[in-house]
Amino acid sequence: MVTVNGARYERTVEPRLLLSDFLRNELGLTGTHVGCEHGVCGACTVLLDGEAVRSCLMFAVQADGHAVTTVEGLTDGGGGPLHPLQAAFHEAHGLQCGFCTPGILMTLVPFLRDHPHPDEREIREALSGNLCRCTGYQNIVAAVRLASDGIPTPDR
Amino acid sequence: MESRRQIGERVRRTEDARLLTGRALFVDDVRLDGMLHVAFLRSQHAHARLTGVDATAARARPGVVAVYTAADLGDYWRPGPLLVPPPPIAGLVFNACTQVPLAKEKLRHVGEPMAMVVAESRYLAEDALDDIVVEAEPLPAVVDLEAALAKGAPRVHEHLPSNLAAHAVQRKGDYARAKQRAHTVIKRRFRYDRGASAAIENRAVAAQWDPRAEELTVWDTTQAPIPIRNGLAQLLGLLESQVRVVAPFVGGGFGPKIMMYYPEEVLVPWAAMKLGRPVKWTEDRQENFFATTQERGQIHDAEITLDQSGKILGVRDVFLHDTGAYDPYGLTVPINSQCTLLGPYEIPNYESEFTAVFTNKTIVTPVRGAGRQHGVFVIERLLDFAAKELGIDRAEIRRRNLLRRDQFPFNNEILFQDSAPLTYDSGDYEPALDQALELIDYHRFVREEQPRLRTAGRHVGIGIVCYVEGTGIGPYEGARVTVEPGGRVRLATGVGTQGQGHFTAFAQIVAEVLGVDVADVHVITGDTREFHWGTGTFASRGAVVAGSACQAAALRVREKILELASHELEASKADLVLAGGSVHVRGDPGAGITLGALAVKANPLRGAVRPGTEPGLEATAYFGPDRGSTASGVHAMLVEVDPETAQVEIRRYVVVHDCGRVINPMIVDGQIHGGVAHGIGNAFYEQLVYDEDGQLLNASFMDYLLPTATDVPRVETAHRETPSPLNPMGAKGVGEAGAIPTGALFAQAVEDALGRTGLEICEIPLSPSRLFELIEEAR
Fold first, then answer.
1. Is residue B679 part of a domain?
2. Residue B479 structural domain
3. To probe the interface with B, which of A32, A57, A99 has the most B CB atoms within 10 Å?
């Protein structure tokens, strides 16, 4: 039993089935992309109980009893309004072909939760586990800064 | 009010929402009832005689539906076509040896497919690969370019007398005579090794045969859906209209997603028809390192002769080019190297000779830059060494040789890859050089900051390089513009898109002509059912060639709108204004008619029309330039090198770029950022390392290093706009620009930072360890 984007699913799967393949092929959540299947490119990143993980490095059975969030979960199944981070990517031209983008968004969502006002070095460190061949990362960094500008600074 | 200006604006992309939310369709997302999955058995040998492929056990495995070897293909087995025939260069030797769908008798590179397994799941298909028994006798591999041409070397293609794939000489002026007048002659050997395109999306093909409609639909990560459709129709004996090829969203192209054909591209549709079920194959990353085409791998012996003032008298370059196991892409890459070496400079005498060589390595085809970076590396490094020898500043020696504004169009007297003479259409190079020098504060750095920091023991350096890029070549592209009765505009064009922002840039062009919002222009690309004439996305030509066709089609629709509206509004066409999705009479914005209402009137259901009337507000137009337009630029970089670890930190990176009229500066900036990152990867991180047996040693992202966010600097860009006279918009291409001069720049800046006598960087890619070796050698 696994909860994905708030919905509960109960399936019997082969032990060797990757979580990435389960999400894409069993649940039809094809927003999670597969780029290398050896844990380097980060395109398949999803949240497991709120933390970023590589769905190509996990078996689906390891997600048993856990909550998974995919990129579709950021917009209520893909149809809702854009998440502020997605809006910032649009505004700052933080994507080109868009293939690596879902994984980058799912890496950055918990990062911004934990570091609401990062500096450029912190942003680049946070991004260093995701490969993008199109953007040179510059506008992704700009998008993160833009998104973090929209996060209120808590009163101290 | 006249139509609002859209071209030149930083319009946010209309395709983003689909991509950001995970809704965008990529080929691997295609899921169909009853779909079967494919895995390929690939050669482990770089070079071997193939004596048997026994798939009996694999066929018997539960879940396996079919296994095909070369023998099972029958008449369908045939070598691919020559995708790009070479230009008519006098005395040219060219041996065409094109790839085959499945290897028969001989294995010519690691990763060449030998058998195709079709099963109920990809997991089962991969299981069955282990059941196939291959008999092969390994042969000595052809790896090194020079050894490949030695007498008695093993031959990749045994029907040829040697591994020579091509030989070409192009000449301008008389180099030998120029050399007699030389004050200084500099000669060096340069090496530029292979890299991968490494699009984050691997290749994929899915196909479905509909026996009722007798139609084949193929989803393909190709950059050229229309030629693939035409080719498949011919191979499968279907009408072109029976085959629909869709290149939906494609996760990065960079060149290798154009081929005619990849084996998988001809086999997956064939299997779908034969089995009567949808079939899909998706490449995995390891396969991508062996089976997707690669670029680079040249050795240049180059010589420059100059007068005392640093003016170039001539250049002679002799180089070897590694074409890999087959050469379906003709000579595009080495001819780009040959032509781009001339750069933005006046080189009155030029002699360039290359030999393309077959090796037991993956096929070489264009990758972002497509050989241009090799030419730039050679000329820029020669100028650096000449500057040092003559005691002239590096920027100054470039300035003395730049073509002047009044020399355009400038005929270089040799042939370009598109078979047209290499004639630069327009350019204004010196102001770009000045702007780059100013932006990076070159003179102050060289005079003040560098000496001060050097005294403090720091190794800081600066580099500045100039380049040109032949872009926007023919033959042609087309577009169809339709105003729908609802008032929205549909734009269909044949080129596919791999992240270049075509949905937005093409919409801007049409929106400006028709006076509508960009958001109201619905763009369809890369679906042969929607538009079936065209060639593809390559050579930085999308915006130039397809963009011009979009504009031409929109202008025809505008004319139809004016014609009809002038009748409806009883006003002369000259008094009509298109704005806000309506037409009105100038000075009376209240009394107008919407484009949607006009579209309805243009398609009457009853009554008579004037003879010759075409229905609807729709037009199709084509554009083909006489030849490519030449973009240009200057890149400058500040680096600091740690001589102990050989780590290089890029402190600043400046790009002054001229791609003619800019359609969307935001998109152009993005293209340059990505190109520079690719170039930095090629310069310092990425190298495909083959051993002497032709085995690729680093076929994973753990071992083949793509630059990450911590490796790529912020790129400062400035645009200059020298319009091209070759298309109505004045546009030039930009897709590859960022990646072209980076290697040359990196070498120059790092060498300058180390400031060590005897250290000359004549090779790319470097790496910290290779740079460390070079530093040690120079000690």
1. yes
2. 16-23+474-623
3. A99
Contact flag B674-A135 (C-beta cutoff 8 Å): yes
| pLDDT tens per residue across span B238-276 | 999 999 999 999 999 999 999 889 999 999 999 999 999
Residues B225 and B265 placed together within one structural domain of the fold: yes
Q: Across the interface, do B31 and A98 touch by the CB < 8 Å criterion? A: no
Name the DSSP class of B743: H
The CATH number of the domain covering residues in A84-149: 1.10.150.120
Is residue B224 located within the same domain as residue B360? no
Q: Verify that B222 and B74 share a domain, yes or no.
A: yes
Q: What is the pLDDT of residues B558-608, one digit of tens each?
A: 999 999 999 999 999 999 999 999 999 998 888 899 999 999 999 998 888
> Which residue of A33, A134, A140 is the best one to mutate when testing the B interface, meaning the one whose CB has the most B CBs within 10 A?
A134
Sequence spans of domains, chain A: 2-75, 84-149
**Looking at beta carbons, which residues of chain B come within 8 Å of A125?**
709-710
Total domain count, chain B: 3
Half-sphere exposure of B378 (CA within 13 A, CB side): 31
**φ, ψ for residue B330, nearest 5 deg:** 60, -135
Residue at B149 is within a domain: no
Q: Do A133 and B678 touch (CB under 8 A)?
A: yes
Cross-chain Cβ contact A133/B254 below 8 Å: yes
- Topology adopted by domain A2-75: Ubiquitin-like (UB roll) (3.10.20)
Spatial strand order in the sheet of B629-642: B460-471, B629-642, B647-658, B715-720
B349 vs chain A: nearest CA distance in angstroms? 38
Closest approach of chain A CAs to the CA of B711, in angstroms?
9
Q: Are residues B350 and B438 in the same domain?
A: yes
What are φ and ψ of residue B276, in 5° steps? 65, 25
What are the pLDDT digits (tens) for B101-114? 999 999 999 999 99
Assess whether pLDDT exceeds 80 at residue B1. no
- Considering the domain boundaries, does residue B157 fall inside one? no
Count of pairs with CB atoms under 8 A, one residue in A, one in B:
178
Instruction: Give percent of chain B with pLDDT exceeding 70.
Output: 100
**What value does the mean pLDDT take over residues A45-73?**
98
CA distance A135 to chain B (A): 4
Rounded Cα distance between B497 and B503, Å, is: 8
The band of A20, judged by pLDDT with boundaries at 50, 70 and 90, is very high
- At B6-16, the pLDDT tens digits run 999 999 999 99
Are A50 and A109 within 8 A, CB to CB? no
Q: What is the pTM of this model?
A: 0.97
Torsion of CA A38, A44, A45, A50, to 10 degrees: -120
Mutate to test the interface with A, among B9, B10, B11, B16 (most CBs of A within 10 A): B16
Band (A154; pLDDT cuts 50, 70, 90): low
